[in-house]
Design brief:
Elements lengths: L3 E10 L7 E10 L2 E6 L7 E4 L3 E5 L1 E6 L15 H9 L8 H17 L2 E8 L6 H13 L2 E6 L6 H4 L9 H11 L7 E7 L7 H14 L3 E5 L2 H4 L4 H7 L7 E5 L5 H10 L2 E4 L1 H7 L6 H6 L5 E2 L11 H23 L10 H8 L1 H6 L17 E5 L11 H8 L5 E6 L2 E5 L2 E2 L3 H21 L1
Helix pairs in contact: 2-3, 2-16, 12-13, 13-15
Bound molecules: zinc ion.
Length: 447
C-alpha cells in the first residue's frame, strides 16, 4: 500500500530551478519520495496544513564531530591549538562506546530538531571496534540521513596527530562497511575520515587514500586551517602524492594558496566551510567566495559543539556576515562599489541545502524539493514574531528564523518533528548525554 503525505498550502522554496518558488503550493510525498510539487494537489493522503509555513529542503551539515555532544560548550574560549589539547588529548581518550552512543543519539536529534536532515558524521573516536558500532546504532535510531565518516582512534595526540604512523585499520573499516553499509540504502552512506599530510607520515596518507578508493567510498579531510595546518600546504602535498580526486571533501581550506585552490577545483573535489568555528577559533577566514570564484560549490558545517552552536542558521549568518564584511571593507578601501557577486541571503539557502547535498555526494536523493528525490523536507513557522511579516521568504529563513521556528521535519518521508516537537524520546537522549558528561568528567578527574 502506498503511504502518502500531503503538505498543504505552504510557501514552497524548492531550490529546484525548474520549479522555483511557489508562494502557495503543495508537496506530495509517496513512499518516502517527493511525487509532486505544485498548487492544489488532490490525493488520498495524510494532510499537514502548511498555512503560514515556509517549506524548504532540509539543511545538510557536511562535517560534524557528533561524538562531542556530551562535551557541548566545554571549550567556549578555545583556539584550534587549545582544542587539540583540551578535547582531542583530554576527553577523546576517555570516551567509551556508551559515550559515543549517547552523544550521537542526542547530537543527531539536535540536528533533526534544527531542520538538518542530512549529517556527515566525522567520527574520529574509534578507540575500539565497539565505538563505530555505537555511533552508527545511534544515528540509525534517530532516522536522520547520514554519511558516516569512519575516522581514526583518538587515544593520544602523539600517536594520532603528530606525524602519525598509525593508519586507520582497514579490516575494521571493511567490517563496518559489510555490517552496516552492505546495500546502497537511501538513508546511510559511508566515507573515510582521514587526517592527511602533516598529521600523518606519507605512507599512512597513501594507505588511507588507497583504502577508501579500494572500497569505493568518499574521503573527507581537514586542510589549511590556522597556524596548525595552514603551513602544511596539505592540498599541494596531496597533489604531489597523486591523491587529489573528485571523491574528496576538503574542510576549512582557510589558508589555501591560489595554486591549491586551482588544484582542488581542477580535481573536482568539494569544500565544506565551518564559518563560526573558523572565525571564532583561529582557523582563518571562511573562504566561501574564494571557493565560488574557483567554480566550486561550497557547503556549510557545524564542526564542534564544544565551542559553537549546532544549528545551520548560525553557520549561514556567520558566513554571510564575515564574507560581506570582508568584501565591503575591501571595496571601501579601493573606493569601488561592491561586486555583483556579493553573497545574497538566497544564495546562503542554496549553500546550506543543495550545495550540501552535492558535497555529501547525495544530490541525486536530497538537497531540493524535486519530484523523484527522497522527501527531506522542513517547514519554518513564518507566523512567529521573529519571522513575520514575510517580504522575502528565502531571506526570512536565512536571516530571520532560528531553531525555535523549525515546525516540521521530514526525512525520507518520515515525520521526525511535528508541530514543533520531535517524535523521538528526547528525555531519554538528554538523560543519556548528561550521564555521559558526568562519566567523562569523573574519568578526567581520576586521571
Ligand atoms: Zn572538524
Amino acid at each position: 500500500m502506498t503511504v502518502r503525505t500531503l503538505l498543504r498550502a505552504g510557501h514552497v522554496i524548492s531550490m529546484d530551478p525548474d520549479i522555483g518558488d511557489l508562494p502557495r503550493a503543495d508537496v506530495l510525498i509517496e513512499d518516502g519520495k517527493i511525487a509532486a510539487v505544485r498548487p492544489e494537489i488532490s490525493a488520498d493522503a495524510e494532510v499537514l496544513d502548511m498555512t503560514g509555513r515556509i517549506v524548504i529542503p532540509g539543511f545538510v551539515d557536511t562535517h560534524r564531530h557528533t561524538w562531542e555532544a556530551s562535551i557541548r560548550g566545554v571549550a567556549p574560549d578555545a583556539t584550534l591549538d587549545d582544542y587539540f589539547v583540551d578535547i582531542l588529548d583530554t576527553f577523546a581518550p576517555l570516551y567509551t562506546p556508551e559515550d559515543v552512543y549517547a552523544a550521537n543519539l542526542a547530537g543527531a536529534l539536535e540536528c533533526l530538531n534544527a531542520g538538518i536532515t542530512t549529517l556527515v558524521d566525522w567520527s574520529h573516536i574509534n578507540n575500539t571496534p565497539e565505538h563505530p558500532d555505537a555511533a552508527i546504532q545511534a544515528l540509525a535510531e534517530t532516522g536522520i540521513r547520514a554519511q558516516y565518516a569512519y575516522g581514526s582512534a583518538n587515544t593520544s595526540l602523539a600517536d594520532y596527530w603528530f606525524e602519525s604512523k598509525i593508519a586507520i585499520p582497514g579490516d575494521d573499516v571493511r567490517r563496518i562497511r559489510d555490517t552496516h553499509f552492505a546495500s546502497d540504502d537511501s538513508l546511510f552512506t559511508m566515507a573515510l575520515a582521514t587526517r592527511g599530510p602533516g598529521f600523518c607520515v606519507n605512507d599512512v596518507v597513501t594507505a588511507e587514500w588507497g583504502l577508501a578508493r579500494e572500497l569505493g567510498i568518499p574521503i573527507t579531510v581537514h586542510v589549511g586551517m590556522g597556524r596548525l595546518a595552514g603551513r602544511f600546504g596539505m592540498a599541494k602535498q596531496l597533489h604531489d602524492l597523486g591523491l587529489l580526486g573528485p571523491d574528496t571533501t576538503y574542510i576549512h581550506c582557510c589558508y589555501f594558496s591560489e595554486e591549491e585552490w586551482r588544484m582542488v577545483a581542477d580535481s573536482g573535489g568539494t569544500v565544506s566551510i565551518a564559518p563560526q568555528v573558523e572565525t571564532q577559533m583561529g582557523h582563518g577566514w571562511p573562504p566561501v567566495m574564494k571557493a565560488i570564484e574557483h567554480g566550486l560549490r561550497p557547503s556549510l558545517s557545524v564542526d564542534v559543539v564544544t565551542t559553537v552552536p549546532g544549528d545551520m542558521f548560525t553557520q549561514i549568518r556567520a558566513a554571510f556576515g564575515a564574507e560581506r564584511a570582508r568584501v565591503n571593507a575591501e571595496c571601501w578601501q579601493a573606493d569601488v562599489p561592491v561586486p555583483e557577486t556579493m553573497l545574497t541571503a538566497r544564495r546562503m539557502l542554496e549553500i546550506a541545502t543543495l550545495n550540501g547535498a552535492h558535497v555529501a555526494g547525495l544530490e541525486d536523493r536530497t538537497g531540493s524539493l524535486t519530484p523523484g528525490k527522497r522527501a527531506d523536507v522542513v517547514a519554518i513557522d513564518a507566523t512567529a514574531l521573529n519571522v513575520a511579516p514575510v517580504h522575502d521568504a528565502a531571506a526570512a529563513v536565512t536571516l530571520s528564523a532560528d531553531v525555535s521556528n523549525v515546525d516540521t521535519v521530514i526525512v525520507d518521508g518520515v515525520i521526525r518533528k511535528r508541530d514543533g516537537r520531535l517524535t523521538a524520546d528526547v528525555d531519554r537522549a538528554r538523560r543519556l548525554v548528561e550521564e555521559s558528561r558526568d562519566r567523562l568528567l569523573a574519568a578526567k578527574a581520576a586521571r
